[in-house]
Amino acid sequence: MEKMYRFIFKSDNYELQLESTDEKFVTAQMGQLVSLATKQSKQSSGTEVVAKIKKEVPFELVNVQATKSKVEKEENAPAPAKKKGRPAGSPNKMAKAASEQPKTIGGVDLDAEKVANAIKNSEEYAAIEEKILGRVNQLNKILMACYYVNKVYGKKPVTTSFLEELFDHLGRKMAKSNIGTKMKNSQDAQDGYFKLDDEQKKGTPSQYKITKKGIETYEALIRA
Q1: Average pLDDT rounded to a whole number, residues 176-195
Q2: Is 130 part of any domain?
C-alpha cells in the first residue's frame, strides 16, 4: 500500500489540507505556510500556529507538529557561511555540462541513453538479459551494444567512452579500459569483430565499427 502524507494547516481564519505521496513536498509546503502565517501574526495576541503531517499506513498514525516559536527560532538563526569555490560558469561546471551532451562522432549526435532504450524496448530484450547481460562474458556485451548502435544510427563508429556510458544506462558497469582491451584483441583487418574507423582524425580517441562477422556472431548468439 502506497503511503499518503496529509498536511493540515490551521490558522485563526481558515484551514487548509494538502495530500501527496511525496513526503518532502508536503514538508516543504508546510514550512512555507507556517513561516508565512508566523510573519503575519507576529503583532497579534500570540496565537499558536499549528501544522500537522499525517502519514497514513495500516494501523499507524504519526503526527508531526511545527509551532510558531520553532519557526521564529529558525528565521532568526544566522545564515550559513558561504562555501569557497569556483564561480558559476567555471571550467569545472562547463566541463560537466559538456560531458552531459550527446557525443558527436562522424557528424552524428550519438545518445547513449537512446541506444540503451532501444535495447530495453526490443522484442529480444528478454533473451539479451538471459544470454548476455546476465552473464560474465564482456565481449558478448560489447557486440550487443555495437549491434544496437548500428541499428539506431547506422554504420557509425563509437568510442570506448561512449560504450562505457551506454552500459551505465543499462545498469551494467564496464570500464572503458576493459572495453578497449576487448575490442582491440578482437580487431582484425580481415576476420575480426571490430575495425578501426578509416575516417578517424589523427589525435582523436580510437573509434570502432562492428564488422559483418561481429553482426553475424551476435545474431547467432541471441537466437541460439
Answers
A1: 86
A2: yes
